[in-house]
From TrEMBL:
It comes from Salvia splendens. This is Myb proto-oncogene protein, plant. Keywords: DNA-binding, Nucleus, Repeat, Transcription, Transcription regulation. Residues 15-71, 72-122 form the HTH myb-type domain. CDD domains: SANT.
Length: 270
DNA sequence: AACTTTAGCAACCGCAATTCT
DNA sequence: AAGAATTGCGGTTGCTAAAGT
């Protein structure tokens, strides 16, 4: 469909000479220079005065999603994945709201993550990604595993020296399984090494609280409560499930193709 | 090796909300 | 107050590279 070679005008250009499609290095530089000297905002006039043949909308998007200095690159950490799963369960497709809790990540990136990674799992399970069944599968299999991996890779806690010290977190795998959610262990591979490479958040601040009484989440998108609690990257409390960790190879080579053993999840489709 | 399919992601679109004139 | 301009959001598209056949 690339029509760059077709005549003088390709599909990304129109009569008014507005450019569309991928940004060039020159365009990026123009935008960066202009924003650094004039600041963000007034995107339509910005594009005009910066000499960019782009719509203001396009400039804004390019800046916010790609050029802004504090944009994070690379894979989402388990902590970030966990936050996305949790916050999506509360707010649904409120991508920008979710992104506010993940500094450096854009709503577009989170949306893409959800569509390409999470919804894929739902498709494989043949369940609706917005269904309670799918949410329960996430809650039972995926989130506890992410929490466990976060714990395994978080730096050792120093002994509490003051009353404001963060409480040490229990091993999630030691938490008592809910009666209906205990699973048979599945062989674990050497996939932890892969995960270790993915964890890059030194600010990870997991403070899972064992035996915390169940606290309902206001405005819960699925109306499902998460009893345990930890802090997001801005210190805000987030509640998570207190449930058993199945020994599923969540982080193997096929991390992004199959998060769980479909056979074991069959129960969620019943 | 060539072709097809899939995954990931950047960018676009339409619409709604907000701000400006 | 009203219309225009701008900004923000969520859904969707299409390109590219990787994986599969």
């Amino acid at each position: 469909m690339n029509s760059n070679s077709k005549g003088n005008m390709n599909m990304y250009e129109c009569e008014s000479e507005l450019r569309r499609g991928p940004w060039t290095l020159e365009e990026d530089n123009l935008l960066i220079q202009y924003v650094s000297s004039h600041g963000e905002g007034r995107w339509n006039s910005l594009s005009k005065f910066a000499g960019l043949k782009r719509t203001g909308k396009s400039c804004r998007l390019r800046w916010l999603n790609y050029l802004k200095p504090d944009i994070k690159r690379g894979n989402l950490t388990p902590h970030e994945q966990l936050l996305i799963l949790e916050l999506h369960s509360k707010w649904g497709n409120r991508w920008s709201k979710i992104a506010q809790h993940l500094p450096g990540r854009t709503d577009n990136e989170i949306k893409n993550y959800w569509r390409t990674r999470v919804q894929k799992q739902a498709r494989q399970l043949k369940v609706d990604s917005n269904s309670k069944k799918f949410l329960e599968a996430i809650r039972t299999f995926w989130m506890p595993r992410l929490m466990e991996k976060m714990e395994q890779n978080s730096p050792p806690m120093s002994p509490p020296s003051s009353s404001s010290a963060v409480p040490s977190s229990p091993a999630i795998s030691q938490l008592a399984p809910p009666d209906s959610l205990c699973l048979n262990p599945v062989k674990n591979s050497d996939s932890n090494n892969i995960l270790l490479e993915q964890i890059s958040s030194p600010s990870m601040n997991l403070t899972a609280v064992k035996n915390q009484p169940e606290i309902p989440i206001e405005e819960s998108y699925y109306n499902v409560g998460f009893p345990s609690c930890y802090n997001d990257m801005q210190g805000q409390e987030i509640f998570l499930p207190d449930c058993h960790v199945a020994e599923i190879d969540w982080f193997g080579e096929d991390l992004y193709s199959t998060f769980w053993n479909t056979d074991e999840l069959w129960q969620f489709r019943k």
